[in-house]
Design a protein that fits this description.
210 residues; alpha+beta; Aminopeptidase; 8 strands; eight-stranded mixed beta sheet
Length: 210
């Protein structure tokens, strides 16, 4: 498994093509600008250091760390691209092998792309790759109760809610509660879609009255 070699492509239910691809060093300006423009939109959901120390990692260091984690089969990080522009990021974090074979998904999508099913399509692409090609067993999303946009993503993918983890992650300067959603490979045999992408499309059809 090498994050530098994986490239995933799909189409949203609205017909927009998106690509998940590895970070490149030459993406630095466009990536940092996308984050800067949407800082007010993203900051409330960003992880922070409980010690209060702001990490001083350069973009180049971040990419090198991502590549090392991919080689170690610990995580994968992707740019989300639409219309030739960076519109977000998605990661498969905390990949566990052995008896667990699980991962957690984390992502952000720019505010100008909100409501266009970019996030659920990206999560579905990542999930089908990890649960299929990598033969992992479980995907988890940890979502703050206040994050209505991400709660909608879990609903659109027909994920199963497992409960609340109090003070689970340090986000935006404090320990925050998170609602936990999951999908396992067994869930893909429940008649609601044999892939995560199929589950999403059926959900879209139901919402559209199709």
């Amino acid at each position: 498994m090498s994050g530098r070699q994986v490239r995933l492509a799909g189409v949203t239910p609205y017909g927009e093509r998106i690509i998940l691809r590895p970070f490149r060093l030459r993406d630095q300006s466009a990536y940092l600008e996308a984050r800067r423009v949407d800082s007010a939109w993203l900051t409330p959901w960003d992880p922070t250091n409980p010690d209060g120390v702001v990490p001083r990692m350069t973009y180049r260091e971040m990419v090198r760390k991502q590549r090392a984690a991919a080689r170690a089969k610990q995580s994968l990080a992707f740019i989300v691209e639409a219309h030739g522009q960076i519109v977000g990021q998605i990661n498969s974090n905390s990949i566990l092998w052995g008896a667990a074979r699980s991962f957690s998904a984390g992502y952000w999508v720019s505010s100008r792309m909100a409501g266009r099913w970019i996030a659920p399509t990206a999560v579905a692409l990542l999930a089908d790759y990890c649960l299929g090609v990598l033969a992992l067993h479980r995907m988890e999303l940890a979502i703050r109760p206040e994050n209505t946009a991400s709660l909608a993503v879990a609903e659109k993918l027909r994920m199963r809610e497992e409960g609340l983890r109090p003070n689970f992650l340090h986000i935006d300067g404090a320990w925050r509660d998170h609602r936990i959603f999951a999908l396992t490979t067994e869930d893909l045999h429940d008649g609601r879609g044999a892939t995560v992408d199929e589950r999403m499309r059926r959900s879209f059809e139901e919402r559209s009255g199709g």
